[in-house]
Write a structure and sequence with these properties.
The chain is α/β, with parallel strands linked by helices. It contains seven helices and eight strands, in the order αβαβααβααβαββββ.
């Protein structure tokens, strides 16, 4: 698919990509300068039934931003999701990221590569920040400190001390039956 630069995007100072936790802070993102993007799966996280009443004001703001063309909701192309999955496996964040998280990072990567505007990913999720760092996507936390440095994780069994694939996080160890965890890789492994 060939991407054409949107004239409206070129007039904006930057493209901002919001994670669920940024929408849920309650900020009035309609007052923020720049065009805001997110994915359909992020919006679905906000619409979760058990929090629907609590999040109603946020959903009204989202609707207003959509009507004013301040917010664009769209999924990333599949090839960018695949690239994020590869990087998340390298950093060891693969199992710590939801599908919505992976899509959000992929959208940031796609917009970074297909637009001349500055792209900024806003999230308070350390794993999103870690994978974004690996992909050289500018990220910013809101109302908290972000990661200080990139971490490469490994999945291991805390009982028998064996290491496993990052996809095995929270699965049962086939050797001893313990639930696998993750830890930073030691520096001697690089």
């Amino acid at each position: 698919m060939i991407h054409q630069k949107n004239k409206n995007m070129q007039n904006k100072s930057s493209i901002l990509i919001f994670d669920t936790n940024i929408f849920l802070t309650g900020i009035d993102f309609n007052l923020i300068e720049g065009l805001i993007y997110t994915t359909p799966t992020i919006i679905e996280e906000i619409k979760v039934k058990k929090y629907l009443k609590k999040n109603q004001n946020i959903l009204y703001r989202i609707q207003a931003a959509l009507e004013n063309q301040k917010l664009i909701i769209r999924p990333p192309e599949k090839k960018y999701v695949e690239e994020v999955i590869i990087k998340a496996k390298i950093t060891g964040d693969y199992s710590a990221l939801s599908d919505a998280d992976k899509e959000l990072i992929a959208l940031a990567l796609e917009l970074t590569e297909t637009n001349e505007c500055e792209v900024k990913l806003f999230s308070n999720d350390y794993s999103i920040e870690n994978v974004s760092s690996e992909l050289k996507i500018p990220f910013f936390p809101l109302f908290k400190h972000g990661i200080k440095s990139k971490i490469f994780w490994e999945v291991y069994c805390p009982q028998c001390k064996t290491t496993h694939k990052v996809e095995d996080l929270h699965k049962t160890c086939e050797i001893c039956g313990s639930i696998m965890k993750r830890r930073p890789k030691s520096n001697k492994l690089y």
